[in-house]
Amino acid sequence: MARKKVETNISYDDARQVYYVCMDHGADENGRRVKCYRTYPTLAQARRGLREFSAERDGLRRVSPRSITLDQWLEYWMEQVIRPNRAQTTVYGYGKIIRNHLSPALGDVPLQKLTPQHLQGYYAMLMEQKGLSANTVRRHHDLLSCALHLAVRQDMLLRSPTDRVEPPRVIPQEARFYTPEELRQLFALVEGHWLEPIVKLAGALGLRREEICGLRWSSVDFARRRVHIKEARTAAGASIVQKETKNRTSNRVLHLGDELCRLLRQERSAQVQRSLARGDGWSEDNFVAVDKLGKPYSPNAVSLAFTRFIRSHGMPKITLHGLRHTFATVASAQGAPLFDIGRALGHSTPATTGKIYTHLLDQTHAATLDRVADALK
Fold it and tell me: Which residues does the UniProt record annotate as the domain Core-binding (CB) (predicted)?
C-alpha cells in the first residue's frame, strides 16, 4: 500500500511501518525546491523531528541551499573581505595557504557539506604527510575559522565546522638568546662591518628586523637622542612592502644611548659622503640600513647576511630576531620590570611579553622567593 498522508509534511508507510517527514529547505539559487525525507518509528517522534527542523529552518539560523564550493567561498572571502581590509603581507600569506594546501585538498567540497571530519582529516594529513608543524597547521585552522564564521554570519552556513574540531595545540617556541658576554663579543666582532648598525639596533634597542629595515633618518632625532619606530619594511613573496608598524603599541619612541647615538651619527655622515660621491646614482629613499647605492635592504637579505656572519666567526647559532630576545633578557637581568620591557619591544599587552619570555618570569619568580627567604632569616 502506498504512503498515506497523516498530517502536513508527514505520511505513513504501511509496508515499512514508518512515518516519513518531508524536510522542505526552500528554493535553491535556481529557484528549485529542495526537499529531503527522514523516517521515524512513531508519530510523536515524526512530529518532534518536523518541529525541530522547522524551528531551525525558520529561525535566525536559517540558510538556503547553495551549491557553492569551499574554493568559491574562499575566493569571495579573499576578494571582498581580506584584500580590502588586511595588510598586503596578510593577503599574501592567506593566498599561499589556500593555493598550496586548502584548494588541492578541500577546494571541491560543497561549502554546506563541509564537515568537522573533513577538517580533522585535513589537519592530520598536513602534519603526517606534508610534515607541517602544529603551529603552522594552527594557522590553517585560524584561516578557515575566520572564513567559515563569516559564512555563518552571511547565512551560508548554520554553524561553522571549525567549532567542532580539535585543532593542533600551539607549541610555544623557546626564545634563543645570547648572554651579555656573548652580546658584547658580537658587538666587538661586527665593528666596521655594514651589519654593525643593524646588529646594534636589534641588540641594544630590541627592534624587529622589519623595523630596522623600515627605519628612515627622518625618524632619528639626534638632538633629543631618540628614535621613533613607526614604519616597517617586510616581504610579501617577491614584493617588498613599506608599511606602518605591526600594531598601535609598536609605534613607539626609544632613547638612544651614547654608543648607539655615536654609531648612527657616523653612519649618517658616511651615507652623506657616499651620496655626494655618487650623485644621481644614490637612492634618495632616506633609509638608515642601505647598501652602497643607498638602496634599503630587504629583511630576508639582512637575516641571511647575519646568519653567515655569526657562522663565519664561530658564534653560537642565533637568528637576528634572537637579538631582540637577547635585549629583553639583558634588560630583565638589569632589573627592568617586565611591563617596561614589553613597552620597549612594542608588545600589545604585558601578557604578550610574559608568554614569549617565560624564562624572564621564572627569573623574577626565583628572585622574589629569594628575597622573601632572606627577609625571614
Answer: 68-152
